[in-house]
Amino acid sequence: xxxxxxxxxFKEVNDIxxxxxxxxxxxxxxxxxxxxxxxxxxxxxxxxxREIRISEQKLLRETESILSLIYRxxxxxxxxxxxxxxxxxxxxLDAETRKKENYIGKNxxxxxxxxxxxxxxxxxLIVVKEEGFIKRIFKRILEFIKK
Length: 147
What we know:
Elements: H1 4-18, H2 22-26, H3 30-39, H4 61-75, H5 78-102, H6 108-111, H7 117-122, H8 133-146
């Protein structure tokens, strides 16, 4: 079951696609459009105004994400896709740099202790041998006899 927020977003996307150039809509696989139509909230009323540019309208965040996915996957040129990949790569590098800055001066080995055979042995479970009832009685009798 699709979350209600996404159902509403699918309705907004469907309304936008109905008002989009037919050549662009044809680039989207029919299965994807069918998925949107089957999972949209048919009772949701959108505030999409044909007179205002999409970028200036108040859309659900999920709608913007779905439209971004459609643009990036089906409408973007190869050059734009290369730019997207470069941007994604830069964002990943920035995130990694910020993570490293949080640990400046700290030895990575100390933060993430290396697993060695010594550590594994140190943290291993101890095997406890339980003696049977008869063995315990026999031991007690032997101890009594020795006294």
